[in-house]
Amino acid sequence: MPFGFRTMLKKLIILYDLIRFFLSKKLFGFDNATKILYSCLKESVIPILKANGAQIGNNCDIGSPLIFHNARDFSNLFIGDNCHIGKNCFFDMRESIVIGNDVTLSMNTSYPRLIFGDQRYPDFTGPVLTFLKDISGFYP
């Protein structure tokens, strides 16, 4: 495991982003704290999400910036193993979001929830699988 200058500097920046998120959450509320995910280092995203309740599998690549709406915390965000989430993705956290194993969400993908009365209509825009689940072995 490398312990060069760049690695140590990156770890310090990740720690700085975590502290910045925590302080912003305490001072200005969780919704304002999520704006830190617009400008933080890509490597800081997974530690911030996990520290605030998200369950993220192994070998995931999550880009920055990410946009979260209606988030009180990330405890209703579940991401499986070997997933890629591109930058500028939008998530409406009103309900649970479950992303299975081996799923790729391209950049600029939206995952909003449209609610009209008692009806819920998920609206998927951009190149996203309608059912975000494990499709390994789906293709011959």
Describe the structure concisely.
The protein is of the alpha/beta class and 140 residues long.
Secondary-structure element series: HHHEEEEEEEEEEE
Give the averaged pLDDT, no decimals: 78
> Given the C-alpha coordinates, what overall shape results?
globular
Give the N-terminus to C-terminus distance in angstroms: 38 Å
Low-confidence runs: 114-140
Number of H- or I-type helical stretches: 3
Q: What does it look like?
A:
With 140 residues, the chain is an alpha/beta fold. Helices cover 27% and strands 23% of the residues. The strands form four sheets. Strands 1-4-7 form a three-stranded parallel beta sheet, covered by helices on one side. Strands 2-5-8 form a three-stranded parallel beta sheet. Helix 1 crosses helix 3. The protein is globular and about 40 Å long. The N and C termini lie far apart (38 Å). The C terminus is likely disordered.
